[in-house]
């Protein structure tokens, strides 16, 4: 969050402090999967249940789960991971509404700056799973696509769960962005579309199994 009263030099130090603290706190987290989705999803919603099952399946496979640390889909994935005895990481952000830390985290961090938080999402992840969500979820999806497309990170699975929710977006990307030449045909292959947490977990597990131990 921008603080107009803080001198620029001190703001740089605060950013540095967030980076250092985040790296130190997560230094032992390896081969994790970051799960994104709406903070507004209620516990009784099917998307919540799917995210909870996803977190459980990943934890049972020994794969740490990272979320944005808030309610909704984030809470569900953390809950599933924690209840299965896995590493459950929450990277919260200070916001004027919606965001408050959920109670299902073995590691909980709170960030002031979105870009530091985004760096942490990517640094420790070997895959992203995108559940239905809003602007923030789309921001994180397209950030991941851009990083992979530009080779700023090694290619990793970007799995979208719930075909009915995501089909319209992918159709628009294919029928408009691709048709206009603003992306290439291989760019569409960066995403995998599935309907169930079981399918998403299998894609992630297969990818993790293919990574040399020294790189995890």
Q: Please state the CA-atom Rg, rounded to the nearest Å.
A: 17 Å
CATH topology: Rossmann fold
Give the N-terminus to C-terminus distance in angstroms: 32 Å
User: Sheet bearing the most strands, described?
Assistant: 7 strands, parallel
Helical content band: 40-55%
Structural class: alpha/beta
Strand order of the largest sheet: 4-3-2-1-5-6-7
CATH class: Alpha Beta
Instruction: Sum up the overall morphology in one term.
Output: globular
Domain count: the total is: 1
Tell me the CATH architecture: 3-Layer(aba) Sandwich
GO cellular component, one term: cytosol
Catalytic activity: AMP + H2O = D-ribose 5-phosphate + adenine
EC number: 3.2.2.n1
Protein name: Cytokinin riboside 5'-monophosphate phosphoribohydrolase
Could you please describe the fold and organization of this structure?
The protein is an alpha/beta fold and 216 residues long. It has a single domain (8-215), classed as Rossmann fold, CATH 3.40.50. It is 48% helix and 15% strand. The protein contains eight helices and seven strands. The chain has a seven-stranded parallel sheet, with helices on both faces. Strand 5, helix 5 and strand 6 form a beta-alpha-beta unit. Helix 2 runs parallel beside helix 3 (73-83) and helix 2 runs parallel beside helix 8 (197-210). The longest helix is centred in the first third of the chain and has 18 residues, at 8-25. The protein is globular and about 45 Å long. It starts with 7 loop residues before the first helix and ends in a 6-residue tail after the last helix. GO terms for molecular function: AMP nucleosidase activity. This is Cytokinin riboside 5'-monophosphate phosphoribohydrolase. Belongs to the LOG family.
């Amino acid at each position: 969050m921008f603080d107009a009263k803080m001198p620029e030099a001190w703001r740089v130090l605060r950013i540095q402090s967030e980076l250092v603290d985040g790296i130190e706190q997560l230094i032992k987290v390896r081969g994790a999967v970051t799960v994104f989705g709406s903070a507004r999803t209620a516990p009784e919603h099917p998307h919540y249940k799917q995210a909870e099952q996803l977190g459980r399946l990943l934890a049972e496979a020994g794969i740490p789960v990272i979320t944005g640390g808030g309610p909704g889909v984030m809470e569900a994935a953390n809950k599933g991971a924690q209840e299965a005895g896995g590493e459950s990481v929450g990277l919260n952000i200070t916001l004027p509404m919606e965001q408050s830390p959920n109670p299902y985290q073995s590691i909980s961090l709170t960030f002031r700056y979105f870009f530091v938080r985004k760096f942490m999402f990517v640094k420790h992840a070997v895959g992203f799973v995108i559940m239905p969500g809003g602007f923030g979820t789309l921001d994180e999806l397209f950030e991941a696509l851009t990083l992979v497309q530009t080779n700023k990170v090694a290619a990793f699975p970007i799995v979208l769960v719930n075909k009915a929710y995501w089909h319209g977006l992918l159709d628009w990307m294919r029928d408009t962005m691709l048709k206009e030449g603003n992306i290439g045909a291989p760019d569409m292959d960066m995403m995998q579309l599935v309907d169930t947490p079981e399918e998403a977990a299998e894609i992630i597990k297969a990818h993790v199994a293919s990574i040399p131990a020294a790189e995890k």
